[in-house]
Design brief:
With about 650 residues, the protein is α+β, with helices and mostly antiparallel strands. The chain has 11 helices and 35 strands.
Length: about 650
Amino acid sequence: MNRILATLFLSVLAVAVSAQSQTPAVPGTMPYGKVDVADLELKACEFEKDANAEVLFDKGDLYFDQQFNIIVQRHKRIKIFNENGMKEAEIRIPYQGGNRLEYITGLQAQTINLVNGKPEIIKLDKSQIFTKNIDKVRNEIAFTFPNVKAGSIIEYKYAWNTVSYSNFPAWFFQQKIPVRYSEYITSVPEYFTYRTQVRTYEPFVKNTSKTEAQVGYMSDKNERAMANIHSLPDEAYMSSYADNYQCLIFQLTNITSHQAGIFKTYSDTWAKVGGILADDEDFGKQLKKKLKGEEVILANAAKLKGDDKIAYIFNEVKNTMKWDGVDRWYTTEGTPTAWEKKTGNSAEINIILYHLLKQAGLDVYPMVVSTREHGKVRPYHTSLSQFNRAVVYMPVSEDKEYVLDATGKYNVFNEIPAELLNSSGLYIDKGKELYDIVSLEKLTPSSQTVFVTAQIKPDGKLEGTTNIRSSSYNRLNAIERYKTDGEKKYIDYLRNDDNGIKIASLKFENLDVDTLPLLHTINFTADLSGSDDTYIYLNPNLFSSLRKNPFLAENRLTDIEFGYNRNFSIGGRYTMPAGFKVDAMPKSGKIVMPDKSISMSRIVGEQDGVISIRYVVEFSSPIYLKKDYPDFREFVKVLYEMLNEQIILKKA
């Protein structure tokens, strides 16, 4: 009997061992300085073969010290696979050092190379660690790892410290390069309650919680980890990395001590945040500060009315001030100094704009917003950290409002800057004690109309004129591209880099008139590809913004965000050469997405030797969710096939 039980036990054990051997081990962390030779010999990321570098592990261990300061012990290790991955050896650690709110201690860094089959460690000389004061609030530690080459492992560790309970740092599991293992451990005293936003779509490989006894209180310990996290690619029409990284976000909601009879809520309202801004020395206290020589601008503005007055003051500030490229909701040197220097950050420029508009008698309010790169404002998360720019808010009527931003060289007063759309702004009216969140949207579609009038030559050439009419953001995008890149590159863009198209002349109308559509007139010739003595092939989708399908990838990790609704109209009249007839022509018809958010109609006909076409494409939603991408991609594929279907002429 014992022999049977022993045999049965061994059989079960063998099955268990076999099952364990077939389950891939979850990666983890290692002590600083201890490295696995297999990692030094690693040639590629196992789950993302074309990666230039890989985070082997990234560990954060957060706890509170005896004074209830928050400390995060950070340890990060990276593998460099090739020369393109060596940029990962340049490290920047930002922190808010103003008033010593945050500070960094215990920084160590080293490079590990494989030399004669053994690890060789090269420590970073502390003299090569540089601290930079970005402004009176923000600082940065910068350094570059020594002796880095393809195959190197680099690692660093430090302690991030903050004296603020509410400054609980987020954790980003996903990065711009793949991450083999990422772990965040948080140990929070029982007195503090934080709301946790879990923004992940892949499972945790570790997700545990328990209560631990500390000296005088209990602590809630949570451990969360993810493994084999793909890098976040730069996908066409994605909103930002900040909106899409898999991460954890924390917000302090209350502090409670039953023993001491303390209960304090930190569930701030937007009114409370707005009140803080209104009284801030570097924001609200700057609004009324007088500017040197402002009387001249105000005198000129007094001669104007309505939009003309707004446009004049807006353009005076935009053309006078140079943006230093820094986005802040607060000023650094103050508006009078920035005005005299004619340069400033986004808050300084736009508070100057607010001041002049207000002094001119206009109903305007300061507003804080978040740029697309910084990430969307989440209205349920009442935190000032969500904002990174100040602008001017001007309600005109119940269905019309202006959001003015004079930092952008190509911004106009009557269009919300595209990088602020589909988010929210917080406006401040201290006089009425109104502080409210406003959705920033563009409901009227941005449009582009292309019309071609051309002669088809019997030798397979096309000669004619194209008129393009662009409004709203299409107008702004065209002007910025033209003025930034220059005429030659802009012509290449219009040709879609097609060497068969030659543009003889390009003329603009309304290039400097903000309130009118931009008009192009293009004289051109084109070689019709594939044509011969018998057949002529014509694709009438010329000079439009819808020539190449940007959604060819089978999978997508981020939502599609166009920013605004878009309408396109492509028309044309093509005179056929004598002796040719239509051999094949696209059929007229219409396709519509099931949710009716995208539609395309196509009308094609021929009469008396003239081919007429009219394509109309309408995108009536600015955002398409990644979960709907397969259906979106399939529909757009058909749409582009219809757009680029050829007309075939045959010699009679």
